[in-house]
Structure formats: structure tokens, C-alpha cells
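Submission sheet (multi-component)
Chains listed below:
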Amino acid sequence: MSIRIEHLEKCFGTRTVLHDVNLQVDGPLVLMGPSGCGKTTLLRILMGLETADGGNVTGVGNIGAVFQENRLCPQLTAVGNIVLTGGAPDAAERELRALGFGDKDLALPSARLSGGQKRRAALLRALLCPQARTLLLDEPFTGMDAELVAQAAGVICRLTAGRDSILVTHDASAAQLLGWPVVQLHPYQA
Amino acid sequence: MASDSTHAARQPRWHTAAAVVFWVVVWQLGAMALGHGGLFLSTPLQTLQALAVQLPTASFWHRIAFSALRILTGFVLALVVGLVLGAAGARWHTVRVLLGPPMQLIRAMPVASFVILALLWVSSSNLSVVVSFTHVLPVIYAGVMGGIADTDPQLLEMARVYRLPLIKRLRYIWLPGVFPSLCESCIAAMGMCWKSGVSAEVIGLPDHSVGDALYRAKITLSTPDVFAWTLVIVLLSALLSAAAARVLRWLKARLCGEVKAV
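Outcome: structure written.
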């Protein structure tokens, strides 16, 4: 089932962030646009964390999300965080190792992981969530170097197959690596 | 405050020991200066001697068991009720508003006033249960409310988006959020419940209690016994505070630790 966004409107006070946004998501796409154009707000509306002032959103299934922040339970390991949202522990460990986690990193509570490691764990939490039919990934490559971005892009392509996915990024080269359709979101100008 | 406690935690143990020795010497000098064979201020040695006389007697341990059982019962009841009311207060504004005045009243009320009132409702032997319960309850209630307020809202949003079941939210998000504040409250409350419980016993004079022994020592002008019982209360309070902190840390590790795959 595809996600349909029709005539979406969102204001914060007197500032209009989203105005008459229309989008149909069938499979994966990359959402790009300058800072403040409403990309994160759009994802938060799809997640049900913000209420739109107007318009309709349909077709959003169970969500797997990467937020702007990592939002990992600090006392749990990376695998623990992935298992918490339903991921299988063996798949979690395998994919984390594929993204550069060693034995020591796997044993650490996530509070003690580096920023980049936390980001990878947050990304895999979304991708490995078995119930998630919709994946909303907000800047998932933050804190990763070029080599890791390439590896993460490969994992994303493999694990999003068959699910509606919106990936927000500023990084045009990362978007190119994914090879997904790109949608530009422009800031609203009255 | 935080920097003070951090600083205190880092100081070597011998600093603490040296400070204790310093104050024991001051105590000894003060007792010697006052004279009268320790009638107004017993010496540390007289206190230890009085304690040594008490220690092997069955009545000493009976009194401790009697008071500890009742004071700890009050504490545990307050912990359970405080957890429930704190959670309800954090969830529902009306509950928070309704509970505000009685909690403030209990906090501000002198132990003596409360004891006199409580004696009208309960027997003196159960007085310390009621008094320790009522004095611990507002501390636990505030600790739970504070802990819930400190729980990471971003993690709660994550739980909402991923539709985590309530039991997982409680165990992996709410409990780790509430525990630091709850631990601090429990440690503070443990000391408080001993103070208020024994004060209640000194007024209500239930037989076979620590408070009764303290009162008897006072009316017979046995100052070393007063000091010895006070020392016992301080030690029990410190010991049980440390035990409470350890149990809570253990519980946190057990309850909020690694997730087991289903």
C-alpha cells in the first residue's frame, strides 16, 4: 500500500512550514531540501508526532524510524536496542558487525558508543523492525565517514526492499549511492 | 550541591576517618570540660561502655527488632503507595492538584503534633508504622514525580512510534528514568523514617521499643545510655540507607538490564 500525502499544511505560530504538499510514496524515495524547509516536520506528521493543520495522509503502516537524534535506550547494548523493537538478535549482531561493530562494541551499553556507532544502531533498529511496513529515516548518515556511508547505503537498499521508505538527507552523494528517486522539498515563501 | 556530592564521593576514605577522629576528640574534650562524670555530655568511652553493656542482652535486640519491624513496615508501605500516587500524579493533573495540599501539610507538620493526633487513632505499639509511613510518603511521592518528569521525552516518542508494549515502556524507559530520583528519595527517606519513627516512640512509649529505652535512659539521667541508643539509631539508619541503595541498584540492574529476545 502506498503512502498518499495530499494538500498537507503545517504552521508553527505564524510561520508556515508546509504548504500544499502533495506526495505519493510507492517504495523508496529520498527527500531533499534546504534546512528549515519542513522535511523533519513532514516525517513527524507521518509518525503521528505532529498534527497537520490541513490536508490528508493515508497509507502509513507500522513505522520503523530513524529520528534526528539517535534515541537509543542508554543502558541497553546496540543489539538490545534493536531487539527492544522486535528485531532478531542474530540478525542484529550480523548487521552491526557488517557496519563495523567489534566484540567490544557489541558488549557496551549504547551510552558508551561513539556518535557514529549510535547512529548505525539507530538505523538498524529501524531497518530490522519486522513489523515496520513504512520506514522514515531522518538523516541516517549523520556522523559516518564516506566508507561507512557507502556500507550503510548498501544495507539500507537491501533491508528496505518491499517497504515504503522516505529517507531525508542533505548529502547528494549519499542519495546518489542509494539510487532512489529524489524529491525536492522547497521552503514555503508567502 | 551536585558538585559537593561528587567531590565528597572522590575524597579518600582516610579523610573521612580523620574527620570522624577529629570530632570524637572534640566530643571527648567537650565532655571533659563539662565534667560531672558525663551527666550532661557523656564521653565516647562511657558511650561505648554503655553500648557494650546493652549489646549482649536479649532486650536490646528485642527492642531493635520491634522498632525496625514497625519503622520498615511504614517505609515499605510508603514506598508502594508513593509509587502508585506518584505515577497517578504524574499522569493526571487532577490527582496532582488534589494531593498537593496533604503532601505539603505532612511535610510541614511537626512530628510531635502528628504523633499526638495519631495516638487518638492507633495503639502506641503501631504508632511508628503510621508516623514513618506518613513522613516517608511525601518524599517518595515527590521522588517518583520528579523521576517521571526527568524521563527522556525523546525515548517516549520513540516508544510511541514503534508502538512498544506498556511493559517494555515501563521496564526500559520509565523505570530507568525514575530510578535515580527514586533511589535518592529512598536513601533520604530511610534516614527520615528512623528519626520520625523513634521520635514517635519517645512520645507514645510503646513497650519494648528503642524510643521507650531512650526515654527511660533520659528520665533516669543515664546520659551514656541516651548516647548509646542514639548511636544505635544513627548506625541503623546509615546501615539501612546503604542497604536500600544497594537493593535498588540491584533491582535496577535486574529490571532494566539487557532485553531478552522473545
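Remark: The two ends of chain A are 34 Å apart (CA to CA).
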